[in-house]
Automatic annotation (TrEMBL), chains A, B:
Alphabetical keyword list: DNA-binding, Transcription, Transcription regulation
Annotated Pfam families: LacI, Peripla_BP_3
Secretion signal span: none
Biased composition (Polar residues): 322-336
Keyword Ion transport: no
SUPFAM superfamilies: lambda repressor-like DNA-binding domains, Periplasmic binding protein-like I
Gene Ontology MF annotations: DNA binding
Domain HTH lacI-type: from-to ranges: 5-59
Region (Disordered): 322-345
Source organism of this protein record: Streptomyces melanogenes
Taxon lineage: Bacteria, Bacillati, Actinomycetota, Actinomycetes, Kitasatosporales
Protein name: LacI family DNA-binding transcriptional regulator
């Protein structure tokens, strides 16, 4: 089945001209919505694929669901490192906080014919995936927020192991009342980190206490707000796994407001190892997520796919590692100090 | 003079075909280097300008000289805010630390035909400026590093006023030995901030002491290194204007290493007001540079230029403002505490 035949076939079946089908394929705006949908439906039904080798632009599309965080810069740097080597430019978009980008973004991508698409914390719905596949535009998800679906190429990190390592570090120091500030529960990475926390407690024979576990949204302000709740408990935790670095800094602020010293009165572990984790006072013990390397691996993967090279595996999780700094220490005369019954030594 | 006539004229003079001139105009790679240079030279000499209205792509080019810093994210967000409203996508590049992007970047821009170009801390040389002008691609410099040159549209901030305000704040608190960690001296913004510092001292009748003034590079590590030098002086400063926020955090680290408390033993003022300035301990007093707004104004300006609207002014400096937080306080029994002669009250 040659491309010309299929184009003509689809045009005939849709009752339009071949150039109109071509316009739809190229994401051109000058096709009526109803016609476009009919043609898209036929392209889908016939499993139409643009012949490999159709000229693509030396562009990589990079989409974030939000650009708020310093987190995003680590990813951009990784993509940029590989793109520059390969002579590709990056087209950057933000999906305004939605985890799936809108149709206007897809139309733009079809018109630009990029070499590939990188999605950060976002997924494409089935129809969007088919539209890209029909134009032979590969895509890879970086740090998938939800389950990206069978066969969708994705590069993540070992979030569960990271949550486990963070919590074990606190257990090893002697902490028993360990709080958790989780991320949004709709995100896979938050769930995996929280499950790692739970597994570590369980393996240490410590009962899971739902009162010590609260959801945040991965931003600084949530860390402060939820931190104030946790530190205001009648029997407050001596240590908190803060879910990510920004929440850890919010928790630092909550501790300062309450006059609690880190690590003497409260141990804190973050997640991400953003540059600022080294710079805060005290420097933050955290779980390093290799964001820049994840972005580099994903960029190489999407370029391989664009060249028709099938990577050995379409799902990679890069390892996390605990980085010990100065925000964690053994608890001071655990829990009894709260009641003021135990004198300072 | 119509476009066709000029193209033909230039082709005749260069001894090539009109399509070859067209290829050069569109940044196509398949023209011999010598031919390309001859044609570029003729385009320049004849002051050739592509007729306004030639179709441009709905892209904005955004170029950084480096993406290392969280600073860059504030700018990206501002550009993205306006680009999204206007239905434009952003093509992001990094010029690998050089303040002027290379020719391969220019070729890419000519091939992509963006609506406009935004340069951050970078300038274009004269030939690059003429290549863009010949294709009617406007550009605006955000926070010009050097003098962008007469008539070059640019959006900056009042760096001199900011340096003055930072230093005056410390003087008002009673400090007399005030150090400065400057940025790279090749950057206009560092020079302006340093001159503001000097002017404030001068107006307060305090002699400028070169020993208290050192150059950094706007990164965290320089703040720590230069901070250790300043704090190791026989008569150390009681306050330091750190040049930017990252250097201020480096200085925080230097102070921690020496067991000096902020603000009791050392007052610190930053510059930028990055999000992390609020999050560190103690929260940083700093000069707010409205990076996101600067990027928004620059983006609107380049879009206006692309539409043929001449903005009222081509040079805008947005105002800085001092944000007082907790890293500054009056000096404790100034200078005598250093010698240990003055007992604590």
């Amino acid at each position: 089945m040659t491309r010309a035949a299929t184009l003509a076939e689809i045009a005939r079946e849709a009752g339009v001209s071949a150039p109109t089908v071509s316009k739809v394929l190229n994401g051109r705006a000058d096709v009526a919505q109803a016609t476009r949908e009919r043609v898209e439906e036929l392209l889908r039904r016939h499993g139409y694929r643009r012949r490999r080798g159709t000229q693509s632009s030396p562009l990589l599309e990079l989409v974030f669901h939000e650009l708020e965080s310093v987190w995003a810069m680590e990813v951009i740097r990784g993509v940029e490192n590989v793109a520059r080597e390969e002579g590709l430019s990056i087209v950057l978009s933000e999906s305004s906080g939605r985890l799936t980008p809108g149709q206007s973004w897809v139309d733009g991508v079809l018109a630009r014919r990029p070499t590939g698409v990188l999605l950060v914390l976002s997924g494409l719905d089935r129809s969007q995936q088919e539209q890209l596949a029909g134009r032979d535009i590969p895509f890879v998800v970086i740090d998938p927020a939800g389950d990206p679906g069978q066969g969708v190429p994705a590069v993540g990190t070992t979030n569960w192991d990271g949550g486990l390592a963070a919590t074990r570090h606190l257990l090893d120091l002697g902490h028993r009342r360990i709080g958790l500030i989780g991320g949004p529960s709709r995100m896979m990475c938050s769930r995996a980190r929280a499950d790692g926390y739970r597994a570590a407690l369980d393996m240490a024979g410590i009962a899971y206490d739902p009162e010590l576990v609260r959801d945040g949204d991965f931003h600084h302000e949530a860390g402060r707000r939820v931190g104030l709740e946790l530190l205001g408990l009648p029997e407050r935790p001596t240590a908190v796994f803060a879910g990510n670095d920004l929440q850890a800094l919010g928790l630092y602020e909550a501790a300062r407001e309450l006059g609690l010293r880190i690590p003497e009165d409260l141990s804190v572990v973050g997640f991400d190892d953003l540059p600022l984790a080294r710079w805060v006072g005290p420097p933050l013990t955290t779980v390093r997520q290799p964001l820049t390397e994840m972005a580099e691996v994903a960029t190489r993967m999407v370029i391989d796919l664009a060249r028709g090279t099938r990577p050995g595996t379409l799902r990679v999780d890069l390892a996390t590692s605990l980085v010990q700094r100065s925000s964690t220490a053994p608890p001071q005369t655990p829990s009894r100090t709260v009641d003021g019954e135990s004198p300072r030594l």
